[in-house]
Amino acid sequence: MTQQSALVTGGASGMGRASVARFLDRGFGVVIADLNEEVAQRTVAEFTDHGAGDRVRFVRTDVSEEADFEAAVSRTRAEFGRLDVLVNAAGVGGAFGPLTEIEVADWDYTFDVVLRSVFLGTKHAGRVMREQGTGGAIVNFGSIGAQAAGIGVQAYSVAKAGVEHLTRMASLEFAPDRIRVNAVSPGIITTPLIGMTSDDLAPVLGTIQPLPYAGVADHVAAVVSFLASEEAAFITGEVITVDGGMMAAGPQLGDLVNNNPALRGLVGVNRGSTGARSTIHRKVEVLAEGTR
Ligand SMILES: NC(=O)c1ccc[n+]([C@@H]2O[C@H](COP(=O)([O-])OP(=O)(O)OC[C@H]3O[C@@H](n4cnc5c(N)ncnc54)[C@H](O)[C@@H]3O)[C@@H](O)[C@H]2O)c1
């Protein structure tokens, strides 16, 4: 069998780059499709020097351009003889500001990079994988910004919601070909995109984000690699949130609603409006004031 290969958009930086590292570790040939030539060339040189040899290549690609994406898919097939995995990691923050002020061109740019690209990749990689007849895996990047309105900026979040739903829809279309389509939905991950360090995130860690340590690119890349592997052979159409528990926690209403007695160190049972008595069993020390 020819070598397995992966095409990773946005593979020069952040979570795309960490995904490239995971696939190289697994013996894949990898093509990085990215717009930033300088960073991509540096990334390729680093991987090449650290044992990947000629299994890692770069093709300058604007993922929002159909001809570019189609060429990146063809190049991957030409370099390694086949295409097994597409990871759609390229992304930008895009338009921001009040909806009444956002320029249409900035809104469209955001949708082109974030959502149109995933359609283009699915179209062209899907064609090749279908023709190969040996299945395949597509892993998209959503965002927790797609899941609630108070997290990210408008165009980006709405486009990411599109990515997450396109993931589900494409999974149906490609299931007969054994091509699985899934997504990761990252929380706050310390990459060049957000430009924050774990120190900057200190107020969030263990509070808004329940896990008390910062999310790093490899936390997400590990899930990307899993979704693209045979270990995930029965998973398709799924969006896996990788956010240190932030979405599980939901709005942090604390003591405001339901008058949560646990926050005052009380343990017991609330029997609601049943007519039966509610009881307090004991009082315990409150260890983490301010968290749930
Ligand atoms: N960092 C976070 O907290 C976070 C949270 C949720 C979702 N995401 C998403 O995760 C993905 C990876 O982001 P990251 O944080 O690793 O960012 P990053 O900035 O480190 O990497 C993104 C890469 O995409 C490339 N890119 C941008 N536009 C492109 C285009 N038109 N064509 C080709 N390449 C292009 C950039 O050059 C860069 O190398 C993105 O889709 C992002 O929206 C990030």
Topology at a glance:
Layout: E1 5-9, H1 14-25, E2 29-34, H2 37-52, E3 56-60, H3 66-80, E4 85-88, H4 104-132, E5 136-141, H5 154-174, E6 179-186, H6 217-227, E7 239-242, H7 246-249, E8 266-269, E9 279-283
Parallel strand pairs: 1-2, 1-4, 2-3, 4-5, 5-6, 6-7
Antiparallel strand pairs: 8-9
Bound molecules: nicotinamide-adenine-dinucleotide (NAD).
Task: Describe the structure using short key phrases.
7 helices; binds nicotinamide-adenine-dinucleotide; Rossmann fold; single chain; 16% strand; two-stranded antiparallel ribbon; alpha/beta; 7-stranded parallel sheet; 292 residues
Number of helices: 7
Helical residues, percent: 25-40%
Radius of gyration: 22 Å
**CATH architect. name:** 3-Layer(aba) Sandwich
Please give the CATH class: Alpha Beta
Sheet with most strands: strand arrangement: 3-2-1-4-5-6-7
Ligands present:
nicotinamide-adenine-dinucleotide
CATH superfamily (homologous) name? NAD(P)-binding Rossmann-like Domain
Let me know the number of strands: 9
Nearest-integer average pLDDT: 94
CATH third-tier fold name: Rossmann fold
- 3D shape: elongated
Biggest sheet, open or closed, and with what strands and sense? 7 strands, parallel
The sequence of SSEs as H and E is EHEHEHEHEHEHEHEE
What is the domain tally? 1
Measured by DSSP, the beta-strand proportion falls in 15-25%
